[in-house]
């Protein structure tokens, strides 16, 4: 297996096979199984994600299914499964998580063929145990799950479901709803970004390299991601087949408080900053989401004055992209289109990125300046810059 680049040297070779020896990948991951958020009111949050993002009702666990501790609503859109969980009791661990963090990502569940082996391999390499392998069974078969700790209170759940034919997991029943707005074209999770404390980025990059067998795909320093006020640094970690990508951000020294510091303050520590979801038609997706009330970061009109010179010819109408606030960037493999929502709750913490890749394997470095200026404008409005 290739040794992860943890020295700060940038690696712009995006060919996964060139940086990662898949033959020695001790933790094969098939993809993201689900993302679970602990939220203050799961029923209302589910309505929001259905209405605004176009998710569909999938499964439910709660009082009606015999679950006396919490309720969970499972939403789906193409390959994305979002689980929204709320506790019934004020003194529960889930309640404490919500009190401290507000609504936020608790579990990033990874789909594996063998959850027991994934657990044993990572724990043997130093992972902190959250849940030893357990079997969940019902008339539709058996699911095996195990879990390890990552940054902050975030947990990686390994999910093995090859012997299960049910709707989601044992303990869940099909959630039938008469209200299912049409999907907005979201396909799968492209990457998920973690914000960690100053000085912790290399520590968590090393965790993903040494404990989970990931490799460093690319590194950004404070010269890449900065304005005259704030800056951050980031390492993008990827698994062997490239289906899982976790950028890890930490704040860098700046004149004012960076978006990472703002997140850490309001979230109460390290956590998942944003979820990037892919679409095959970003113009349709953003048009739909805007019409449903989703708020996006404002991109200054002057940004589009130089896009043509910077990215060259693209298939999309630049005037339409400008009207929707969609940004464009290019690398040696193609180009990408991306846009970022404002935080989806009152605390300025979790937000979403919508991305369409036209061959590009990078993360929109050419858009960083405009993006950060837009984020800083929002921080200034909140009085947190």
For the largest beta sheet, what order do the strands appear in spatially?
Answer: 6-7-8-5-1-4-3-2-9
Largest sheet: 9 strands, mixed
Quaternary class: single chain
Kindly report the average pLDDT value.
89
How many helical stretches? 10
Please trace the helix and strand order, writing H or E for each element. HEHEEEHEHEEEEEHEEEHEHHHEEEH
Number of E strands: 17
Q: From the helix content, strand content and strand pairing, which structural class follows?
A: alpha+beta
Share in helix:
10-25%
Low-confidence stretches: 1-16
Radius of gyration: 20 Å
* Dominant shape: globular
Residue fraction in strands: 25-35%
Features:
385 residues, alpha+beta, 10 helices, 24% helix, disordered N terminus
Can you give a write-up of this model?
The structure is a single chain. 24% of the residues lie in helices and 34% in strands. The chain has helices at residues 16-19, 42-53, 93-101, 115-124, 201-210, 259-267, 282-291, 307-311, 318-324, 368-382; strands at 31-38, 56-61, 70-77, 80-87, 104-111, 129-138, 141-149, 155-164, 173-174, 186-195, 215-220, 231-238, 245-252, 271-279, 327-331, 334-340, 351-358. The chain is globular and about 60 Å long. Residues 1-16 have low confidence and may be disordered.
């Amino acid at each position: 297996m290739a040794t992860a680049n943890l020295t700060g040297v940038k690696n712009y070779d995006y060919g996964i096979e060139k940086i990662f020896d898949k033959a020695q990948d001790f933790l094969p991951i098939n993809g993201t199984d689900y993302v679970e958020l602990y939220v203050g009111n799961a029923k209302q949050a589910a309505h929001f994600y259905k209405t605004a993002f176009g998710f569909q009702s999938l499964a439910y666990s709660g009082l009606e299914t015999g679950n006396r501790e919490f309720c969970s609503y499972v939403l789906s859109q193409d390959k994305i499964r979002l689980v929204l969980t709320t506790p019934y009791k004020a003194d529960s661990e889930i309640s404490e998580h919500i009190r401290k963090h507000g609504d936020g990502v608790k579990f990033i569940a990874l789909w594996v063929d063998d959850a027991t082996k994934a657990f044993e391999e990572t724990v043997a390499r130093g992972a902190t145990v959250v849940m030893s392998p357990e079997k969940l069974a019902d008339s539709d078969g058996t699911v095996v799950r195990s879990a390890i700790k990552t940054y902050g209170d975030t947990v990686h759940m390994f999910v093995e479901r090859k012997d299960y034919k049910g709707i989601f997991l044992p303990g869940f029943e099909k959630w039938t709803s008469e209200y299912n707005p049409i999907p907005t074209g979201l396909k799968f999770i492209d990457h998920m970004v973690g914000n960690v404390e100053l000085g912790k980025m290399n520590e968590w990059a090393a965790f993903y390299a040494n404990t989970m067998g990931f490799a460093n795909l690319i590194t950004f320093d404070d010269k890449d991601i900065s304005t005259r006020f704030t800056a951050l640094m980031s390492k993008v970690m990827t698994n062997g087949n490239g289906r899982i990508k976790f950028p890890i951000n930490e704040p860098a020294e700046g004149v004012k408080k960076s978006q990472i510091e703002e997140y850490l303050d309001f979230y109460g520590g390290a956590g998942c900053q944003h979820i990037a979801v892919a679409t095959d038609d970003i113009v349709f997706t953003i048009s739909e989401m805007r019409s449903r009330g989703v708020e996006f970061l404002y991109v200054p009109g002057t940004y589009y004055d130089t896009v043509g010179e910077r990215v060259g010819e693209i298939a999309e109408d630049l005037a339409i992209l400008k009207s929707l606030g969609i940004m464009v960037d290019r690398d040696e493999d193609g180009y990408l289109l991306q846009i970022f929502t404002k935080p989806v709750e009152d605390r300025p913490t979790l937000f979403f990125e919508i991305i369409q890749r036209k061959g590009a394997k990078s993360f929109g470095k050419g858009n960083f300046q405009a993006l950060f200026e837009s984020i800083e404008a929002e921080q200034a409005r909140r009085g947190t810059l």
